[in-house]
Amino acid sequence: TLVVLRAPCPSVPQYFSTATSFCNEQLWGTLSCTVILHPDVEAEHPEASQKMLDDLQYGAVVVNAWSALSYALPGTVWGAFAGDQTLDNVGSGIGQIGNSWLFDHPQKAVLKL
């Protein structure tokens, strides 16, 4: 699914915050997402860009590439955003695969290409 959010925001950081809240609260699923982020925008707003990537509640957040790349790379994790799934509300799944670096309790993978 491709989602383009047109939101009247006074600044790029405000847009990032609005878009992140929309994705986390309105879209179904927490498996993966792709963020299209122009390098010039990221360079002009590095803190806001990083906050957006940190705050997105997806198991794989991939910048400027197909989110399935997280599945293909053994060092990353693939699975729903860790934290709020139960057997009564599985959502995008429970558990993760990958994590060949054996991090304790990874919440998500973030890839920037």
TrEMBL record:
Superkingdom, natural source: Eukaryota
Protein name: Aldehyde dehydrogenase domain-containing protein
Native organism: Chlamydomonas leiostraca
Lineage, broadest ranks: Eukaryota, Viridiplantae, Chlorophyta, core chlorophytes, Chlorophyceae
